[in-house]
Amino acid sequence: MSENEADAESEAEAAETESGIQEGDFVRIDYNVRTVSDDRVVDTTRKDVAEEAGIDDDEYDFSPRIIVVGEGHVFPGVDDALIGGEVGDEGTVEIDAEDGFGEYDQEQVRTVSANKLDEENRRPGAQVQIDGDQGYVERVIGGRARVDFNHPLAGEDLEYEYEIVDVVEDDEEKAKGLLGMYLQMEPDLRIETETVEETVEDEDGEETTEEVEQRSLYIEATQQMQMNQQWMFQKSQVAQDLMDRLDLDRVVVEEVFDGSGGGMMGGMGGMMGGMGGAEQIEEEIEDIEEDLEDADVDAEEIVDELEDE
Fold first, then answer.
1. What tens digit of pLDDT does each residue of 300-309 get?
2. Alpha carbon distance 25, 82 (integer Å)
3. Quick one: which of 109, 158, 101 has its CA closest to 133?
4. How far apart are CA 10 and CA 13, in angstroms?
């Protein structure tokens, strides 16, 4: 092949790549991840595959996942395979242990005092956290425990099968996908474009008011979401990521308290609703005050009666 022909082929390949999915695109993918050594399914978006592998969980949402290409949401080799792809494309990528969950490190297997483990976790296979490190108990002998702090898939070569389901264009769907990655849940949300007044300075330094459009993302934060540790500790980072990726001016979190579970606030809300609002409450308070004024009560007589008892 001549140099000109090679250059032409290279340009054609580059043009073909640029015409497909690119870095920064939001795509929805289905995938299965298996270990190369024993063909064991360790992750999947498909319910039937999970059931067959015995890793199905009723609380887990088995459905295609939204990722941002080139942002480390999947293994680097998968990112590379997605670039230039089209909806409907399928493929398999081999992930070496080094590029997956790392090589197995024997030094990460340590002996610790069994007192550092909760009593119910003093058994082989228990997942524990010690001094901020996540690990699995290998064995417990006497007052000592052998804990493996390697990732469960450390040292494993992986096979990543994927299918590109679609390219996500809707910003609300993109927001749900990002929150799904961060929180493992997709709260109700909406994006609104509003006209607001903004104070600016002109060239002479004088302040003027002008109307500008502002894009806001409103997230309905349920009690479950508010208790999510990822959200509790990284809400500012999550909000900033959403604003940067979706060209938003602000993120508004609306707290939602569900009164159906009872509790003081829920019960009070129900009672007040049944009483007909503030006006009716005031009327009933006045009635009570009138009843007290009309009542013939002798406090000393009541005290005498109690002492006699």
1. 554 455 555 5
2. 10
3. 109
4. 5
